[in-house]
Amino acid sequence: MNPKTIISCAVTGGDDTGFRYPAVPVTPQQIADACLEARAAGAAVVHIHVRNPETGKPSMELDLYSEVVERIRASGTDVIINLTTGPGARFNPSDDAPNTIGAGSNLRTPLERVRHIAALKPEICSLDLGSLNFAGGTLINVQRHVEVMAEEINKLGVKPELEIFDTGHMALANHLAAKGMFGPNPLFQFVLGVPWGAPATSETMALFKNLVPAGGKWAAFGIGRHEFPMLAQALVLGGHVRVGLEDNLYISKGVLAKGNGELVERAVQIIRLLGSEVATPDEARAILGLGKPA
Description:
The protein is of the alpha/beta class.
């Protein structure tokens, strides 16, 4: 177990939960405020998607990312910003013409998917390492696109957080890490319990942990009801943790969370009960090998 455990908070996510659940932040101000709430509760890192403020639907608009990041930085907080690069991979084939793009797709080029990273230069950004059946369609992350995104992220001096949804993703991550594509001490994030991805079990997490290369850092989280059990499992196995309304809407069975802060507070309680302490943002920077914030 780590003496200091990093808590990341994924405050809103890219699923269609905006306006359906009052606690899920939608507007740039709400998302920025949620990040500050998570930091006050004990999170060292905030993981950020953006949403259309009128519809609540997920968005890729640079102006929305810019407003969120500017609000966070203007607050004077020391929290580490982690921006997603996941959007732009969704492909829903037409049922009648399978070689054509169906409704709900949002395919973008690799460089389009990281343009907000180039503009805003967060300390961390996520990087999906493979394709996955997801929500009635597919998330497509072919190796060459992953490489193009990784090359651009490296040039920007941003640390990629390698999102691992299944065992093949881990194999590709290690292949590219061995080629030096992710810099020293790569950071892995194990995503457990997404339908048709890796299950949220102790055995899966132990397998992933055992595949982390020497010097690598890792964290893990579970989806929905698996959030807190997987948090405890990651802690015991020596990893770092993530909570947030992107992953889970409930603080206990049948009880919706009041906000991201409440989920972070529960994570802090579990970490301390199990014998670790919560890392500050500067301690997290030292653990992850980050430079000074922009």
